[in-house]
Design a protein that fits this description.
By secondary structure, the protein is mostly beta strands. It has a single domain, classed as Thrombin, subunit H (Beta Barrel). It contains no helices and six strands. The protein is globular, with a radius of gyration of 12 Å.
Length: about 90
C-alpha cells in the first residue's frame, strides 16, 4: 500500500487531535519519503509545536512536520520524518 486515506490521530504536544489523512509514499532513486495532507478542526494550531506524531487506527505511528497551510482552514500539508506509518510492514 503506497497510499492511505482515512481517519488518524495527530499527537501535537500534549493533545491528541482527530484528523482525516490523505497520505502517499514516494520513491525517488531508491529514497523513500512520505507526506500528504491532514484535515482537522480549524482551531488546531499546526505550527506551534514543531514536530508531531501521526497515529493510524492500526497503532502504527510516524513523525511529521507541517509544511504549509492557512490558519483557520483546518487543512495542512505535511512531510513525514522517518518510516511511513502505512504501507508494507
Amino acid at each position: 500500500m503506497t497510499t492511505y486515506q482515512g481517519p488518524a490521530a495527530a499527537l501535537i504536544g500534549c493533545d491528541e487531535v482527530p484528523v482525516t489523512a490523505d497520505l502517499a509514499l514516494h520513491v525517488d532513486r531508491g529514497i523513500r519519503s512520505w507526506g500528504g495532507s491532514l484535515k482537522a478542526d480549524p482551531s488546531v494550531d499546526w505550527f506551534d509545536d514543531g514536530a508531531a506524531t501521526l497515529r493510524l487506527p492500526d497503532g502504527r505511528e510516524g513523525e511529521f512536520v507541517a509544511t504549509s497551510g492557512r490558519a483557520g482552514s483546518g487543512t495542512v500539508e505535511i512531510r513525514g520524518s522517518g518510516p511511513a506509518p502505512f504501507g508494507e510492514k
